[in-house]
Every structure is written in structure tokens, then in C-alpha cells.
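Hallway conversation turned thread

IA: we were arguing at lunch whether anyone had actually written out Haloacid dehalogenase end to end. Turns out nobody had. So, for the record, here is the sequence (286 residues) and right after it the C-alpha cells. Reply here if something looks off.
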Amino acid sequence: MSVDLDAIHAGLPAVTDTVRLVVSDMDGTILTPHKELAPSTLQAVKALQEAGITLCLASARPPASMLPYVRKLGLASQNAGFNGGIIFAPDGTFSVNRVLPRDAVKIMCDMLHVHKVETWLLTGEEWLVKDAATPFVEHERRHTGLVPRQVDNLYDHFEGVGKVMGISTDYDLVERMETEIGVMLKGEASVRRSNESMLDITPVLANKGEALRALSDLYGVRPEETACIGDAPNDLSMFAVSGLSIAMGQATDDIKANAQFVTDTNERNGWASAVSRFILPRAPKK
């Protein structure tokens, strides 16, 4: 069944006149392809601060791999890890820590195992893997700086799991698992791809839309007075509740159709451009 992307875009609500809070994705958005913060991004963050606009990060990453960037950006705000499953302060303390039911984790692991999809379990403190030497683990270790703990049997570690990840180079399979697990665990888990090879399964309220609502509430801002920037399917839930949604230039057409504006790519200073073109002109009047 074809989807009319133009119709989706035409049906989006009006853009807010005032932005008091920005919620930004990390990978593919505020970070360059090399997982760095561009000088233009640092300048744009300073401009937001000077304009009185709070910046929060919302990522599929665990807090431990977000905190170095929180500190480099000089953020004093709360941020959302695990797609909103954990809300945490710059000192690393959690104000929200949602976990998955044990039975749901078993169902996820069973399904991923049957389809030979590499599986990781993440808690607020640990990243658990069956094999610490796979290419996916090595890639994640390089880019996040985290060190996994290899365990003999993931089935012995279902307590306190905040996120289950399924990883495969079979992109069609990952997309199919998103649908099938999502249907099976409707009401128990939020199931979203963070990119074409990675499936994130988190508690039902652990999605970026709920994260945006929670962060808005913390700062006394209405969700309609927030702007969000992202590039992936797991960003769509925050696009739906914000007053200003911006897709990165390298995002797929369906992501762009669900955003009110599209900026340049994360290779070409797209995040800083989004701030200067779409957000700062809507800063609160002083």
C-alpha cells in the first residue's frame, strides 16, 4: 500500500510562534557522522542559551554514553536516555527509570533468537551481550565509549532491563520485527528502529513523545512551545507532540514528510542551520 507523503505533510498542525524548549536527537542529528560536535553546533547552543531557550537531549543511547556530550555542550538541563525510559540530570542521577516486565523481555529475546537477530540487554548501569567480539558490538564500543559485559546466558539477566536491542544487517527483517514485536507487545512496550539495522524495545512510556512531554513539564513549558530535531523513526513520536518539528536533511522521505521543516544534513551543519533558521526567530520576546 502506497503512502501519500504530501498528504501527511499537508495535514501537519500550524507551527508555533514561540519556542521555549528544544529537544534534540543525538546520532544523525546534533552529532556529525563521526560522532563529534561541530563548531557551528557549539555556537548554536550558545545562541540558544543567550536567547533563553533550554536545550535537552533525547536519545536511544544509555545515559552513560550521553553524559560526555551533555558536559561538552555545557547543559544544565535534564535529558532523556533509552528514548525516554530514563530522565537524568547532568550529574548522572535519574529522576525517571522505567524498566520492562520480565515476561515481555523473554518474549522479545525468544523472537529475536528465532530470527537470528543479535540481541543486547541494557539497564541504567550495564550493557549485556552474549558475544563482546561481534562487529556490531565493536562498532558500538568505538562510537559510545561504553564497555559491554559478556554473559553466558542473557536469559539469566531479565531484571531491571530498560531496553532490549535487536541488531541485524538484514534491514527488511529489522523492519518486520518492529511491526511483529510491536503488535505482540502492544501496551507493554514501545518498539522503534533507531536506524535501519537497530531495533529499540523500551517500556511503553519510553518513547520520545513522552520524553518531550516529561521534559516540558519539568521546565514549565507547554509541549506546543517546544521544538524538536531528529532523523529517525524513533523521533516521530516527538514530532507529533511538539510545536515545531525539524527533520535532518539525510532523513528518509517518510521522516521528512512528518516534519514541518527540513534542514541540511548532519555532514553540512544541519543542526546549527535549523537553530538559526527555524528556532531562534521564534525565541521568547524579552
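OS: looked through it. DSSP finds eleven helices and 14 strands in the chain.
IA: good, adding that to the notes. The chain has a mean pLDDT of 96.
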